[in-house]
Design brief:
This protein is α+β, with helices and mostly antiparallel strands. It contains 8 helices and 15 strands. The protein is elongated. It comes from Paenalcaligenes hominis.
Length: about 350
């Protein structure tokens, strides 16, 4: 029988154990002197290190795993059963042969095994498991751990409808009691606010009508008589449109009157034609005639207002859209000969 001398790392006590005993308990032993649990393989010593006076061999303490207390299942929702663990003592001869890696030595008298003492030592797998370890019948063979899948729940591959019924708590409706006096006090304020809003709207409309009266009268011609009556009371006027670009000057000419000479002045006749190309009536423009000599130098500039080239009957009427007016106006100039002239129009 192969023996191995091991030494307790705490009290330095040395004792001999057999290889079969170490294989049965995975090398875990309890010191018979100080009850320290240690790994016999790691603390093995040679025979030469033993003391000359050997004390009587004390029966080694063999570790037997005891079932750990059953943990209380947690009350978390959706928790399922965890797989249980069971320890079986059935070990094959091939495993025991593979685990024996020590050199065989001549063994002395076999050490009588004493009664097995239950300890609180647990294997690493048992400590990591949430289920208790169920020990099989005590034997001298290795310990195996089997996973039992009897309590594992079946997987759910289809979504199940939620059968929980929602709970609704009906609260009594709050009824706010209105004071009758407050309702009567605020009853007259609403018509007052409505009246105030309408007054503001009318005032805003009148202001816009006053500012844009000319544009409204020129765009919508039938509103001009009404607006003129309103302006008579307010002392305002409604002018016609003033688009000088829409007035064209056609057939302009300047002729000198023969046999007319008075105090060193020359008499000329200015003749031209005006046309309103706008679709609305306009005011009469002011004309500016510039006279030049042979070198294109300005000799004189003559402004001609509408009162000068219009007849008294035409002064009260606007320049109607599409209308044409022929102007023939005499002009007196100083003793200078005129070679050319230009006519311009503008609104003052």
């Amino acid at each position: 029988m192969i023996e191995l001398t091991t030494q307790c790392p705490q009290c330095q006590h040395q004792f001999d154990v057999t290889l079969e005993q170490l294989q049965q308990r995975k090398g875990l032993l309890r010191c018979p002197r100080c009850a320290q649990i240690f790994d016999a393989y790691e603390c093995a010593v040679a025979k030469a290190q033993t003391a000359p006076s050997v004390s009587p061999i004390t029966e080694p303490v063999i570790l037997t795993p005891t079932p750990s207390p059953t943990p209380t299942p947690s009350a978390t929702p959706g928790s399922s059963k965890t797989p249980s663990f069971s320890i079986s003592a059935a070990a094959s001869d091939s495993e025991s042969e593979s685990q024996s890696h020590f050199i065989s030595q001549p063994a002395s008298a076999p050490i009588a095994e004493g009664p097995q003492i239950k300890t609180r030592a647990q294997t690493a797998a048992a400590m990591r498991s949430s289920q208790p370890i169920q020990s099989a019948t005590e034997s001298d063979q290795d310990i195996r751990v089997y996973l039992s899948q009897d309590g594992r729940p079946e997987p759910r591959w289809q979504a199940q409808p939620d059968t929980s019924v929602p709970h609704f708590s009906a609260e009594p409706r709050r009824v706010v009691a209105l004071d009758e006096s407050s309702s009567t006090d605020h009853g007259w304020s609403r018509p007052l606010w409505v009246l105030l809003v309408w007054v503001l709207v009318v005032m805003t409309a009148l202001q816009l009508l006053y500012v844009y009266r000319a544009q409204i009268a020129n765009t919508v011609s039938f509103t001009r008589p009404v607006l003129q009556r309103l302006c008579e009371g307010l002392g305002c006027t409604i002018p016609y449109m003033r688009t000088v670009e829409a007035i064209e000057i056609r057939q302009s000419s300047l002729q000198q009157q023969p046999n007319f000479e008075q105090k060193g002045q020359y008499a000329y006749v200015l003749q031209l034609q005006l046309k309103n190309t706008l679709a609305w009536a306009q005011e009469w423009p002011t004309l500016v005639v510039s006279f030049t000599d042979a070198s294109a130098a300005a000799l004189a500039t003559l402004p001609i207002e509408p009162q000068q080239y219009l007849a008294p009957s035409q002064r009260q009427r606007p320049f109607e859209p599409g209308a044409q007016l022929t102007i023939r106006l005499p002009v007196l100039l100083p003793n200078k000969k005129i070679n050319g002239f230009t006519v311009e129009k503008y609104y003052p």
